[in-house]
């Protein structure tokens, strides 16, 4: 089993992105699954082109994209990607699409194929906060989640895809005293636990567990 795991480069004035820093710490194999690591640009469309090229090269069974969500307390597997770019800030090449569909021929939204409830339980089992998220935003994180799902729908129907958001790391919140943070090693530990569940449940349905949200 091959798993392509990506992390974004820094954006929004930050000098580091915990997503890629944590991905770099992942082992090369998890529960027998081969982990392929890739840094991708925080750029609309270019990020999707980089991932699509890697998919065609490596033919992975799973694509898991990791992104930073400053302000979130825990590690949050995403349930859904929506067909909308609506950027609050420019990407790393100055693009700032507003209310633009990602794919004119795509569905309004796509759900992940990954066992997000089991992933959350796995992360909690190693002592880290985690929850299911029902919004990946409308910036490049949602963009890549949606683009991977579109790729699955149109070209790689046997592949599975998903997204995890991770918090700021400690050095990013020195001047943001109200923001939660998590260490890079802990984020990597949480991602490894999530990936373990993806491999273990590769031929099974997700667990039935409470994980919804009221708002």
At a glance:
By secondary structure, the protein is α/β, with parallel strands linked by helices. The chain contains five helices and eight strands. The longest helix has 17 residues, at 184-200.
Structure, described:
By secondary structure, this protein is α/β, with parallel strands linked by helices. It has one domain (2-200): Peptidase C15, pyroglutamyl peptidase I-like (Aminopeptidase, 3-Layer(aba) Sandwich). 29% of the residues lie in helices and 18% in strands. It is built from five helices and eight strands. It has helices at 18-25, 46-58, 116-125, 140-154, 184-200; strands at 2-8, 29-30, 33-40, 62-68, 76-77, 80-82, 109-111, 160-166. The strands form two sheets. It has a six-stranded mixed sheet with strand order 2-3-1-4-8-5, with helices on both faces. Strands 6-7 form a two-stranded antiparallel ribbon. The longest helix is centred in the last third of the chain and has 17 residues, at 184-200. The chain is globular, with a radius of gyration of 16 Å. The model has no long low-confidence stretch (mean pLDDT 97). It is an enzyme of class 3 (hydrolase). GO terms for molecular function: pyroglutamyl-peptidase activity.
Question: How do the helices and strands line up, and which of them pair or pack?
Answer:
Layout: E1 2-8, H1 18-25, E2 29-30, E3 33-40, H2 46-58, E4 62-68, E5 76-77, E6 80-82, E7 109-111, H3 116-125, H4 140-154, E8 160-166, H5 184-200
Parallel strand pairs: 1-3, 1-4, 4-8
Antiparallel strand pairs: 2-3, 5-8, 6-7
Helix pairs in contact: 1-5, 2-4, 3-5
